[in-house]
Amino acid sequence: MDPQQKLRTLLDQLNTVIVGKPTQMRDCVACLLAGGHLLIEDVPGVGKTTLALALARSFGLQFSRVQFTADLMPSDLSGVSVYDRGKETFIFHPGPIFAQVLLADEINRASPKTQSALLEAMEEKQVSVEGETRVLPSPFFVIATQNPHDQLGTFALPESQLDRFLMRISLGYPDRKAERELYTGTDRRDMIGTLHNTLSPIELQALQQQVLEVHASAALLDYVQDLVTTSRSGRWFLQGLSPRAGIAVIRAAKAQALLSGRDYVAPDDIQAIFAQTAAHRMIPVGDAGRGPIEQAKAMLEAVPLP
Question: Cα dist. 89→16, 130, 280 in Å?
Answer without folding.
Answer: 50, 14, 45
